[in-house]
Amino acid sequence: MSRVPIAATVGILGFLLYVGLAVALADAVPRHWAWQALYFLAAGLAWVWPALRLILWAARK
């Protein structure tokens, strides 16, 4: 079985879980613009490393 369908399924499900968690945790961030900017910057970039690892795994032979 090819790794691509597995990676696509895991990636989509993982991303949906990640978005749900990020949105749920956003309620705990203080309402000050600086805290919110830091949180959303971190939350917006935190998915890149796991997604890159998943893509590299799927592309391996």
Automatic annotation (TrEMBL):
For this UniProt record, give its keywords in alphabetical order, as a comma-separated list: Membrane, Transmembrane, Transmembrane helix
Q: Give the transmembrane region(s).
A: 36-56
InterPro entries cross-referenced by the UniProt entry: DUF2842 (IPR021265)
One Pfam family recorded for the sequence: DUF2842
**Keyword Membrane assigned:** yes
Q: What is this protein called?
A: DUF2842 domain-containing protein
